[in-house]
Amino acid sequence: MENRIxxxxxxxxxxxxxxxxxxxxxxxxxxITTIAVSLASGGIRLDANIQSILFWIIIFFSGMSGLAHTxxxxxxxxxxxxxxxxxxxxxxxxSKLLFNLVFFIFIALVVSPxxxxxxxxxxxxxxxxCLTVLFGSIAIASVSTILGAIVxxxxxxxxxxxxxxxxxxxxxxxxxxxxxxxxLEPGAAPGFQSILxxxxxxxxxxxxxxxxxxxxxxx
Length: 219
Hints:
Elements: H1 2-19, H2 21-41, H3 48-76, H4 80-86, H5 89-119, H6 126-151, H7 157-168, H8 170-184, H9 193-217
């Protein structure tokens, strides 16, 4: 099973980075939006809470096209039926989840230094900031994977994905913004309870998605 998951993951990575459409769009959006926000602020150091909100909005919308693309591409290229016949649903889900995790964490790793540099949002509690970005990214990618499988069966897939994903991810974004704000404020004493919430949230979503994916994928 591990070998087949690796083959599916390798195929997704090769196809995605051969076309590079989602990757280019995500990086372009992240870079342009970060620079635009920096210019709009006029070099003024914004409040930590505002910086955190802008930071996660940029990360969230930068990764949306790529996160949905893994399942939507299978439908658009008419390979979903072949994949459903010749692969176990759980293998497909795990490979897509791993791809989304790698993709979104990579986006976060690119956006974070850009945002810190242009917006002068230097984390005071650097470890807490890194853990928040990591586990927030995992939570968003976990939700996006199962939502991508659901909306891939519908029309207007790209638009529908962003519309239904944002409300479902509000708890994750809210906790991530609170943690990021605490990591940027010198006088704050950030705890790790919120980070544990992000980790537990991801675990619940992944477990529920793993159990229900077969019924969604074979529909």
